[in-house]
């Protein structure tokens, strides 16, 4: 297990507010975990605790056998962890291409570079000199995905890929997902649309109010059990 | 002809104000820090130049070879050791801490150098002038202005065309996400402050050649710098040059009417522009 991600009973806070109450998970290399849960359940906080934007006060995060609890975001990226943040959060004073270049500037070797990304999302090549935030929502999401891929990560954390996007655009992006994760890359997929997330994943973890309410392989649990866990009932 | 001459001198002095302002604009743009000690750091640079000249015997402008790196290193250290700790939440802590720094600098300079006013001697450069079509252009003001243009052009290039500038812009946009690109904001801010104080060093030496200085003239320079930044529009480097020039010309015209009106005329011009365009003439930044 030392070659994947192990989160062991972490507790994360915002000031005095405890957002995660002892959350654990394990993720093998190359697998995709769907992280589901209602609004405010702690999904984003869990992702932030893994990539170093939030530092857990208790518990342990290890990645490939190395303790990374409390490392800063500027350090985890070098170890191959990338985040596609909720709401995209592109750099607004940077062009599309500058956003992508910045994503790759740590210089981690691997398959992803500008050329390969423009292959995956040709529209970005066309708009590469435009300010990133002038693009449509779906195109901005492509930039956010591309920016994360440019660091040649081994683990990508996708926070609400489909937020605010038209259904057709969501379908497009999900159609590209296997091409992205098919390289032995692991992924955690946070999604409001539970069915979509479960279909794209080989295991899932459901959070309710900062605790794990259910986890396992999607096929091992009935939809009713999953939705009960989702609503924390 | 007199009027034209007054305006021209004002424009050239505006270069010095732009040098006061450019660093302020840069660090406000990158980290939303309003550095109350900026003016005192300009004065500190003047005293450091004075000491460097004493030690080396170099002429003032050549002393910049030492003063610029010294001030830049000071900026890096100051940011890492002190100012970084005040950033990230409220606007008030950095304001208060830099105010405290301003008081410390003034009193430190007073203790080290007394209240006597000093001046750097740049020899013939100070009095030399060329006459163009009846207008007399002082070499020093012309050099000051040309330096301001060069410094701002260089900063502009750095900000929009280099990896360092990209890091500055990204951190300014969203410091948290920039961390995930490997940019440690504490370091990015320290580089910005280093650059800022490098420019401050140039401003300080020109200030000290042009006029007398003493430990307490920092706050006045800070105000001129602020006014130039605000007139030009937040976040716009070339705007600081425009702001400096407007300030310089207004002061020149005020002084031409009555010498006592020089400073007042600058402030009035500033207020008038704010009244008409609250965001300055060429705003670049929202919020
Ligand atoms: N920066 C913050 N400061 C204070 N509290 C926060 C902060 N971010 C999140 N929280 C709180 O922590 C809890 C978990 O939030 P989190 O964003 O992790 O939930 P989430 O599952 O991602 O929700 P959503 O589906 O709305 O994105 C919520 O109660 C939220 O209000
Ligand atoms: Mg969330």
List of distinct ligands in this structure: adenosine-5'-triphosphate, magnesium ion
Structural class designation of chain A: alpha/beta
Instruction: State the end-to-end CA separation of chain B.
Output: 43 Å
Helix count of chain B, per DSSP? 11
Radius of gyration of chain B: 19 Å
**Class by helix and strand content of chain B?**
mainly alpha
Return the average pLDDT of chain B rounded to an integer.
94
**Shape call of chain A:** globular
Largest interface: A-B, 25 and 17 residues
Taken as a percent bin, the fraction of beta residues of chain B is under 5%
The CATH superfamily of chain A turns out to be P-loop containing nucleotide triphosphate hydrolases
Overall residue-averaged pLDDT value of chain A: 92
Shape field of chain B: globular
Percent of residues of chain B in helical segments?
Answer: over 70%
Total discrete domains of chain A: 1
At CATH's second level, what is the architecture of chain A? 3-Layer(aba) Sandwich
Largest sheet of chain B: 2 strands, antiparallel
Oligomer: heterodimer
Could you tell me the number of beta strands of chain A? 10
Number of beta strands of chain B: 2
- At the first level of CATH, the class of chain A is Alpha Beta
